[in-house]
Write a sequence for this structure.
């Protein structure tokens, strides 16, 4: 017999709750009353920014990385070179739709914990968060500060709910591995059973809507060839409709050993996600900014196992038709011993929150005071880096 408890359990399996495989990362989307789109990709595990974007023109780089610096790279100018796994993004660079901001970080320092670093990145605050402290995310605060935003199209994949969009605005959850196969007769039966019960009627409609979205994504002609591309394909479909804000995460960036083998896989996922967004969005791409950010960078020196350890300054990747790209922005601190943070890490020269804040100002015309006081409390935005065209 189909009881309410069993129905809710089935709805959860279809994506209506956060319970799912822990290795599947989340995608969350929200609608808003403007035409520009913002996609935030959280790179979980601390991407090595100076391997993704190599400062070959820095005289200290080769000595710090005798193995990693020797690998093939594609020169972008006389100083910077791109990791070959990001070659699929070169057309975007050449079109002025890809940019990088090296030496960025949150205010998080020294402890180098993935859990704490990601929490600070997504919360957008300037200090540590106490265990169990009630938190919300900076994207959610942005939506809450703007009249007319809705949560009609908000989805999260898997168990790992995104803090960056957590808060007062509600979200739906979507899981690419979920399948809810119902015949038309079964759908009519469920609608009839729960017609007069708002809670279970709405849950049923939500479950069936998610199942339809999964089926639609699966019929997209094989665009999504990997996990990150699958998330991006689903996001693109929603962003072409009412959704304006999307966020999802990509794991696999913790490269303590054998980085030359591990990092290309993660970078390939990022390139595939951005490429899928570009293809899937079509003309909407021209009004889109994609920001890929990580909790912290990695050590300037490679370690004895061909990897790098947890560091401080990282690199933000930006793409989209709304991005003023073909450039590496910000101030490079250098890699000489005296220039390193704590004698080991890339020295941060910019706050990653400020980069995101200026992107939102450029896209949505947000007031500077709103960004500094409500979205990122206590942040000094500083000068406009000119990331958004």
């Amino acid at each position: 017999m189909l009881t309410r408890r069993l129905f809710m359990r089935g709805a959860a399996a279809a994506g209506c709750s956060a319970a799912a495989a822990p290795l599947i990362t989340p995608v969350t989307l929200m609608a808003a009353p403007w035409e520009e789109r913002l996609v935030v990709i959280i790179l979980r595990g601390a991407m090595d920014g100076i391997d993704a974007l190599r400062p070959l023109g820095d005289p200290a780089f080769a000595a710090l990385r005798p193995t990693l610096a020797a690998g093939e790279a594609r020169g972008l100018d006389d100083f910077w070179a791109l990791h070959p796994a990001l070659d699929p993004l070169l057309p975007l660079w050449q079109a002025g739709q890809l940019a990088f901001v090296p030496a960025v970080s949150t205010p998080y320092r020294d402890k180098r914990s993935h859990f704490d670093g990601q929490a600070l990145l997504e919360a957008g605050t300037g200090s540590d968060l106490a265990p169990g402290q009630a938190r919300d995310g900076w994207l959610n605060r942005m939506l809450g500060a703007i009249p007319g935003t809705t949560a009609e199209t908000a989805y999260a994949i898997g168990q790992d709910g995104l803090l960056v969009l957590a808060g007062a605005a509600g979200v739906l959850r979507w899981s690419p591995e979920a399948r809810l196969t119902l015949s038309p007769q079964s759908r009519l039966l469920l609608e009839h059973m729960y017609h007069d019960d708002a809670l279970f009627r709405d849950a049923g409609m939500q479950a069936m809507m998610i199942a339809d979205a999964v089926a639609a994504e699966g019929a997209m002609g094989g665009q999504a060839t990997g996990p990150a591309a699958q998330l991006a394909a689903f996001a693109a479909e929603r962003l072409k409709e009412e959704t304006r804000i999307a966020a999802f995460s990509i794991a696999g960036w913790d490269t303590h050993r054998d980085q030359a083998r591990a990092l290309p896989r993660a970078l390939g996922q990022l390139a595939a996600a951005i490429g899928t967004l570009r293809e899937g969005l079509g003309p909407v791409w021209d009004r889109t900014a994609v920001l890929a950010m990580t909790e912290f960078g990695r050590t300037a020196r490679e370690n004895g196992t061909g990897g790098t350890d947890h560091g401080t300054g990282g690199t933000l990747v930006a793409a989209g038709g709304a991005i003023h790209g073909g450039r590496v922005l910000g101030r490079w601190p250098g890699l000489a011993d005296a220039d390193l943070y704590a004698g080991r890490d890339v020295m941060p020269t910019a706050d990653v929150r400020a980069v995101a804040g200026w992107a939102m100002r450029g896209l949505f015309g947000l007031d500077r005071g709103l960004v500094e006081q409500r979205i990122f409390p206590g942040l000094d935005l500083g000068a406009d880096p000119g990331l958004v065209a």
Observations:
- The two ends are 58 Å apart (CA to CA).
- The chain has twelve helices and eleven strands.
- The chain has one domain: 4-375.
